[in-house]
Amino acid sequence: MKRKFMTLGLTALLGTSAVLLPLKSNQASAYEDLEKKKNDVQSKQSKNQTKQEKKKQELSELESKEASLKSEIEKIDGQMTDTNEKLEKKNEEIDKTKKEIEELKAQIQELKEKIEKRNNILKDRVRSIQENGGSNQYIDVLLGAESFGDFISRAGAVSTIVEADNVLIEEQKKDLKLVEEKETKLNQDLQSLEKALKDLEKLKKTLDDQQKKKSKVMKKVKHDKDHAHAELGSLENEAEILKRQDEAIKAEEAYRKKQEAEERRKAQEAASQNSGNSEASSSKPSAPSSSGFIRPAAGTFTSGFGNRSLGNHFGVDIAKRGSGVPIYAAASGTVYNAHYSSSYGNVVFITHNINGQTYQTVYAHMSSIKVHTGQRVEQGQIIGTMGNTGQSYGQHLHFEIHKGLWNNAKSNAVDPADYIPL
């Protein structure tokens, strides 16, 4: 009897082991890739965070540089405004001086006419003196006096004539000097103004060159800043995708744990039932089933994987006319992204774990989405309807399979024709 119980116990133990050993083997296989992908995602998240911090620092430096350049440009603008005002004022002064010169020219012309008249008078006087004997003529006038009173009268007249000649000569000298001084002063003023004008124009050109250089640098800094903003936005988008991928992988991991716990429970119940039977069962439990991928939509295969006229095609296209054409999940998994994209249109991304290998599938250009991010879906579940959204030409489904994680370069994309019937 004792031996019989030992035999039954050993049989139960062997039966249980037969159930659990394959499960552990499958579990290790299933978790190995999930764990690897989870570590890959977390490593990428860490690198992404480092890049974001670096890009934020770069952006901060560019914004600081932009602010500094803006301040310098404003300063140059102020100097330019001041210089333009001075130029306007200097041009007004030059116009005024030129006007004064024109007026002076008229005055000079009058003086020259007076001088010319005086010159003619003096010339006539000299000629008369030469023709009539010079100073002897004055002596004859004095000696011809009939009385002392007449002499005094004649002497006074001679003196007046001589004095008048002297005054005329002095006025001539004075007017000539005045003309020369005025001409010299106005010419000096004009030269000074023109020099100042040239200096201001030179300063304006310098400021204008500085302004152009600063504006050019500012344009580059703004371009770099916009580029940095775009790169930061791209990194933030990548971070969001990585976060969702991480969540989907963890959800798959949790689902598999729950599924395996259920399978262990069922195996233990079966083993317990076998232990109560006098004859041990020699049958082995069935291996975990895996249906792989199914075709995600009905319709005509219109475009394959690889190069084509519009560029490299990372999936296959399936087209069918009519409204409400259903799109199915090609395998069970977790939706890690369901949203609208300018290129993909309405798109759903699903993470799967099949036979220990992590896959991600993409369903693009749908007219409507029937699932949401983070949702667990079963193979064959309707996730949306066929459409023509995003960069699409005609109603169809663009379907991608990535052996591993989806990325912008689509480096893990594989030909869906190798995985689904077409």
TrEMBL record:
Residues 1-30 form the signal peptide. Residues 213-222 have a biased composition (Basic residues). Coiled coil: none annotated. Residues 108-182 form the Peptidoglycan hydrolase PcsB coiled-coil domain. Residues 269-292 have a biased composition (Low complexity). Residues 312-416 form the M23ase beta-sheet core domain. This is Peptidase.
